[in-house]
Amino acid sequence: MKSILASALLTVVATAASAQTPGHRPLEIDMPHFGETVGGNIFYPAGAGGTEEQFGRGPTFSRIPVMEGAELVEGTYPLVLYSHDWNGGLGPQAWVLHGMAQRGAIGVHVDHKHTLWGSNDVGQALNHWTRVQDLSEILDHVLTDPEVGPMIDRSRIMVVGFGEGGLTALSAAGATANLDAVVSACEANGSAMRYCDEMMADDVNLAGYDPAAWNASYKLDAITSVAVIEPSLVYGFSAENVENLVDDVTLISFKNGEEFDVATDIDASGLAAALPNATRLDFNPAYRFSAALTCLDGVEEALAEAGRFPVCTDPEGSDRTEIQGKILDALSSKLGLQ
Question: Domains of the chain, with CATH numbers?
Answer without folding.
Answer: 9-334 (3.40.50.1820)
